[in-house]
TrEMBL record:
This is Cardiolipin synthase. GO terms for molecular function: cardiolipin synthase activity. GO terms for biological process: cardiolipin biosynthetic process. It is a multi-pass membrane protein. It comes from Pseudomonas syringae pv. japonica str. M301072. SUPFAM superfamilies: Phospholipase D/nuclease.
């Protein structure tokens, strides 16, 4: 396709040699074997020598992102599912206008459906200030009618081709924990420096090309840190040859020998994921799910609840996070594999959304994620087997109706 041809031309001038060396180093490392099918499942290679930093909740996440934007010299790439015209959204807007005035090239991509409430005046102000901003929207016309369900759920920030940010936060005051009844909001992002940032840029460039038929500038440093960790960016979407996102969860669960902990705001698994969870329990693996205790969408919450009760009866330990709404998407496998990104454990992420997960293989980073999740589990209530049996009949009927329509949720 022309997109691939243009992409090849755009990236052909870059110095890929140091990046290729990190891909080769990754393949030679012990950590590579832990990824099993992941490097072939994704379209991008595993890469050695990345530096990753966990960002817990909105203040830490946007504090880091805004600081990186302030320090930008050449380019800023930004992609979110939701951008709101509120306190946080306007803070981002004024920061971008400031940097555009300094001559920094800025590209902003938002999902048309996710950001349906974003006023034209917000967009116009950015455009007038020299920021390139576009909506990711599915094509019109009869042939593409089925695409109406597609959403670009990815969240990416890349500054100067050096620093990248990926995770669960969108741009809105609720993500800062400022909007009851879902406050305090619980979410997780990750900052990454190293060769995997090139993959974040490539993912952004493909989505930008889809929206604009143009490519943003991409940049690669001439060298990478020496003593970093192995990372792989896993992109998934409805155009994939296979169901990448569902297969990712299945493979992560199958890879677990001691434990697999998964957090997700929604739990609407397909048969393959359900089978993988059941088998992991039978293998003696510590299988835990952390879900919200309050809904942001009632029908989805009802369907999730019924699947959660099924999981409890299969021996999965299911917890409901009590303090506020839980939106983070985190997977922890054994003592070295983690995945953090935008993908939920539900049908929409499996089949309809464009998603991103950052896989990391490192025991130190894994233990940081373990500490974070342990603190979350300590603020959660475990669903008992008895509770899963005792749910009121009428309530269960509602949940069953919700489950009936779960393939389209």
């Amino acid at each position: 396709p022309p997109a691939n041809q243009e992409m090849r031309i755009a990236i052909g001038d870059l110095n890929w040699r140091p990046w290729m060396e990190e891909a080769v180093a990754a393949r030679r490392s012990e950590a590579y074997a832990a990824l099993r099918a992941m490097p072939k499942l994704g379209n991008m290679p595993a890469l050695a020598n990345n530096k990753v930093k966990l960002l817990i909740n909105g203040e830490e996440t946007f504090g880091a992102i805004f600081q990186a934007i302030r320090e930008a010299k050449k380019t800023i790439l930004i992609q979110f599912f939701i951008i709101h015209d509120d306190k946080l959204g306007r803070e981002l807007q004024s920061l971008l206008l400031e940097k555009a005035a300094e001559g920094v090239a800025i590209f902003v991509l938002y999902d048309r459906i996710g950001s349906h409430a974003l006023p034209g005046a917000y967009i116009d102000k950015l455009r007038d200030g020299g920021v390139q901003i576009k909506a990711f929207a599915t094509r019109g016309g009869w042939l593409n009618r089925f695409q109406i369900n597609f959403r670009n759920h990815r969240k990416i920030v890349v500054v100067d081709g050096l620093k990248g940010y990926i995770g669960g936060h969108n741009v809105g005051d609720e993500y800062m924990g400022l909007k009851p009844p879902l406050a305090p909001w619980r979410d997780t992002h990750v900052q990454v420096i190293g060769p995997v940032v090139a993959c974040l840029q490539e993912s952004f460039a493909e989505d930008w090309f889809w929206a604009t038929r143009e490519l943003p500038p991409l940049s690669l440093p001439d060298e990478f840190p020496e003593d970093g960790v192995l990372c792989q960016l896993l992109t998934s979407g409805p155009a994939d040859a296979q169901e990448t996102c569902s297969l990712f969860f299945v493979e992560a669960i199958h890879a677990a020998e001691e434990r697999v902990w998964i957090t997700s705001p929604y739990f609407i698994p397909d048969e393959a994921v359900t089978a993988a969870l059941t088998l992991a329990v039978l293998r003696g693996v510590d299988v835990r799910l952390l879900l919200p205790s309050r809904p942001d969408h009632y029908v989805v919450y009802a369907a999730s609840s019924l699947y959660a009760f099924d999981a409890v009866r299969a021996g999965v330990r299911v917890f409901r996070y009590e303090p506020g709404f839980l939106h983070q998407k985190v997977v922890l496998v054994d003592n070295e594999i983690t995945a953090i990104g935008s993908a939920n454990l539900d049908n929409r992420s499996f089949r309809l959304n464009f998603e991103l997960m950052l896989l990391t293989v490192d025991s130190d980073f894994s233990s940081q994620v373990e500490s974070m999740l342990t603190a979350d589990f300590n603020l959660a209530r475990e669903i008992s087997v008895q509770e899963s049996h005792e749910t009121r009949r009428l309530h269960q009927l509602g949940m069953r109706v919700a489950r009936l329509i779960s393939p389209i949720l």
